[in-house]
Design a protein that fits this description.
heterodimer, A: alpha/beta, FAD/NAD(P)-binding domain, 27 strands, B: alpha+beta, five-stranded mixed β-sheet, 2 helices, binds iron/sulfur cluster
């Protein structure tokens, strides 16, 4: 078995992996490698051919492949070594990364630090328990996206989409443009799961019906999907008897959530947070295992790629600093605790020593709220929605208000009484 | 006088604006927007709704069956579906570089359709 020493091993070459690797190199790490199981760098960006990428990071409206291209060029110029067709199969807590490579076979890298950038995967029908047979014609939205945009197959002519996440809505538009009829987008919650711009530009633009507080209660068809029953749900999200109606279709797409991909993280002994499904991280994106860092959708599912890139740059920088100066001495750790109407906060801890951005999501949509970080900062916000991630920037001056010995800060989303 | 509803996409609030349209087609009044930036957006969206068309074209002589493309800038919303018909008839051969024009002047909009990726032989 081949053994090789590297400084920083980055696992995955989507937007997270590329940003982390470039930043690690810029920060001064010498031997930085990206391991990617596919034949090219870029991950899922290649199948996301729509625009809306990079509005914040590049101040330009790019498509997925264009966003990938910008970073691939930077990787090539930076001296980072991409290892393609290299699938990582194991990571030890001592940072041995084992991979299977088309070039070199079974190979182990001894890494001084690691950045986890494996991204996320889609929830499938198995997680939903919809009654019915097992006909052909049921796809996750992301699989359909790959079929339509990369392979060149349109999976059906009459389509129902369950779930109003961004990928589902984007596929509703894409399939309509390709000549399919999208009969309905069905959402179990009383509000849309994805971004408002996607609701308008993907559904309203093409008069695609959106059924809120509805679900697919049955799939009909033996060999191929022939119809689905769509029913209204009660407040516990159970179908209400007597409200069902059949919609004829040959295809059902599922856009019912994304799950961070953390099998490798678990092998390395990294602690995962129950709500996000991703590693517990500090402000430098170090996980519970020293020298192992994480960024992007492997940590928590983002809605904008720009934030994936920024977060992963932090991880890449920390991974390089870990090697170079041992700068990451265990400093102060203050836990961030989700309070009223806050679902989660990333990072999970802050040092209080330097400025930090908090990324978070709410549980329920609300209007006219005040976000409150302990007693050190407040910010008023017009509207919050679970589908739109919030970002709060805490300055050094604000953090210096933290009292000595503070162990925890509660972040709340409060109603504003003054409107 | 007529009324048109337009949803602002400027922030997660998603205000539904009601535009009162005068007999000459001019916007006479706007209600429902919570901010000025939103009002500007909905008037623009009423007068000239535009979108970037992103899609694929079929390739010939490449291991990659499709090439992703986009309109360089947004085109009128009403041209999206007609634009798809033009794309459906188009075939491209490698090599293509990202940014290369695949269809010049789509439907006389003066706007080109360009490749968003390289295409190898
Ligand atoms: S009008 Fe202003 S507040 Fe309302 S959705 Fe648009 S940007 Fe947001």
């Amino acid at each position: 078995m081949t053994l090789r020493d590297v400084d920083v091993a980055v696992i995955g070459s989507g937007p997270a992996g590329m940003a982390a690797a470039i930043k690690a190199k810029e920060t001064g790490a010498e031997n930085v490698v990206i391991m990617e199981r596919a034949e090219q760098l870029g991950g899922l960006l290649h199948q996301c051919i729509h625009n809306g990428f990079g509005l914040l990071y590049f101040k330009e409206d790019l498509t997925g492949p264009e966003y990938a291209h910008r970073f691939v060029e930077k990787v090539m110029d930076s001296g980072v070594r991409p290892l393609l067709q290299t699938m990582v199969v194991g990571i030890s807590p001592h940072r041995d990364v084992t991979a299977v490579s088309s070039q070199e076979g079974y190979i182990t890298f001894r890494a001084k630090s690691i950045v986890l950038a494996m991204g996320c995967r889609e929830r499938t029908r198995g997680a939903l328990n919809i009654p019915g047979g097992r006909p052909a014609g049921i796809f996750t939205a992301g699989t359909a996206q790959r079929l339509v945009n990369v392979e060149g197959f349109v999976p059906g002519k009459k389509v129902v989409i369950l779930g109003s996440g961004d990928v589902g809505m984007i596929m509703a538009r894409r399939l309509t443009l390709e000549g399919a009829k999208v009969e309905a987008v069905v959402e179990i919650l009383p509000y849309v799961g994805g971004l408002i711009r996607n609701e308008v530009q993907c559904l309203h633009d093409f008069n695609i019906p959106l059924l809120l507080e509805h679900t697919v209660s049955r799939i009909h068809g033996e060999k191929r999907v022939e119809a689905v029953t769509v029913a209204r749900v009660d407040k516990d999200k159970n179908p209400i008897a007597g409200t069902g109606r059949q919609i004829e279709c040959d295809t059902l797409l599922l856009s019912v959530g994304l799950i961070p991909e953390n099998e490798l993280s678990l092998m390395a002994g990294v602690e995962l947070a129950p709500i996000t499904g991703g590693p517990v991280v500090d402000e430098g994106r170090q996980t519970s295992v020293p020298g192992i860092f994480a960024g992007g959708n492997v940590v928590h599912v983002h809605d904008l790629v720009d934030n994936v890139s920024w977060e992963s740059e932090l991880a890449g920088q920390s991974a390089a600093e870990f090697i170079i100066g041992g700068k990451r001495a265990a400093g102060r750790r203050v836990n961030l605790k989700p309070g009223r109407n806050i679902r989660y906060i990333v990072p999970h801890t802050v040092s209080g020593e330097k400025e930090v951005s908090l990324y978070m999501r709410v549980n329920e949509p609300e209007e006219d709220v005040r976000l409150k970080v302990g007693s050190i900062m407040t910010k008023t916000v017009r509207a919050v929605k679970p589908g739109e991630m919030l970002k709060l920037e805490l300055s050094q001056a604000q953090l210096s208000k933290l009292k000595e010995g503070t162990a925890e800060i509660v972040v709340d989303c409060e109603e504003r009484g003054d409107r | 006088m007529a009324e048109v509803n337009i949803i602002c996409i400027g922030c997660p609030l998603g205000c539904t604006a009601t535009l009162t349209i005068g007999d000459g087609g001019e916007v006479a009044a706007i209600t429902g927007c919570e901010c000025k930036a939103g009002e500007k957006y909905v008037v623009e969206e009423y007068k000239n709704p535009v979108r970037v068309l992103t899609a694929t074209v079929v390739t010939q002589g490449s291991p990659q069956p499709l090439l992703p493309v986009r309109t360089a800038v947004p085109i009128p919303k009403a041209k999206l579906l007609p634009g798809m018909k033009v794309l459906a008839k188009t075939r491209v051969k490698p090599p293509v570089k990202i940014g290369d024009v695949v269809i010049p002047n789509l439907l006389d909009t003066g706007i080109d359709v360009a490749s968003t990726s390289d295409l190898a032989i």
